[in-house]
Amino acid sequence: MSNNLHLAVIYGSDREGRFCDTVVNWLAGQLERSGYKRMRFIDPADKATDTHTILDAADAFIVVTPEYNHGYPAPLKAIIDSAKAEWQAKPLGFVSYGGVSGGARAVEQLLQVFAELHTVTLRDSVSFINAWEQFDDSGCLREPARAERSLARMLAHLRWWALALRKAREETPYEEILA
Q: How is residue 85 annotated by DSSP?
């Protein structure tokens, strides 16, 4: 059933040598195994990406964000601020990574930003504390059980909200209630 959703996965970093690629690759593999077939990726390092089209077509979003200096990266903020209506009345989950906080401080700040955009953020998320120690050289998790459980829970909620909100947007376009 999940393969009928359009899912946008958003990279939070564009740094050279970024660890974000490792986390996104893990996530993409997990999503494919979970039945998601309609995935599009927004990478701030890829200037040819049609961000607005991908965001607009998406039923749900997953943001993969590192924590840089107790916050989220500027390229992610640029992607967020480049759109408005595309984010509204759609669910969003987080996969974060970093040092001792696992990206939690970045996610806490992003919750405020997405609330302003009328995006429904999920409580459940996936967080990688000291992420570079959790993945091996080939990008596989050394101990995947916890992250896989967290992701399964997040995806179940993401799917529920995506279907409910898609139906609601079809019945009453969100811009009508903002007037």
A: G
The alpha carbon dihedral of 56, 6, 153, 137 has a sign of negative
Give the separation between CA 98 and CA 104, rounded to whole angstroms. 8
Q: What tokens does 79 get? A: 């992607």
Q: What is the CA radius of gyration of the chain?
A: 15
Q: What angle do CA 151, 120, 64 make, to 5 degrees?
A: 45
| SS3 (DSSP) at 161 | helix
Query: 130 falls in which pLDDT band (50, 70, 90)?
Result: very high
Question: Which residue type sits at 87?
Answer: W
Whole-number Å distance between alpha carbons of 12 and 21:
10
Helix (H, G, I), strand (E, B) or coil at 117: coil
Q: How many CB atoms lie within 10 A of CB 89?
A: 20
Global confidence as pTM: 0.96
Give phi and psi for 25, each to the nearest 5.
Answer: -60, -40
Alpha helices in 40-144 (DSSP H): 51-57, 74-81, 104-116, 131-134
pLDDT in tens, 133-149: 999 999 999 999 999 99
Q: What CA–CA distance (Å, rounded) separates 16 from 24?
A: 15
The answer for residues whose C-beta is within 8 angstroms of residue 135's C-beta and 6 or more apart is 22, 23, 26, 141, 142
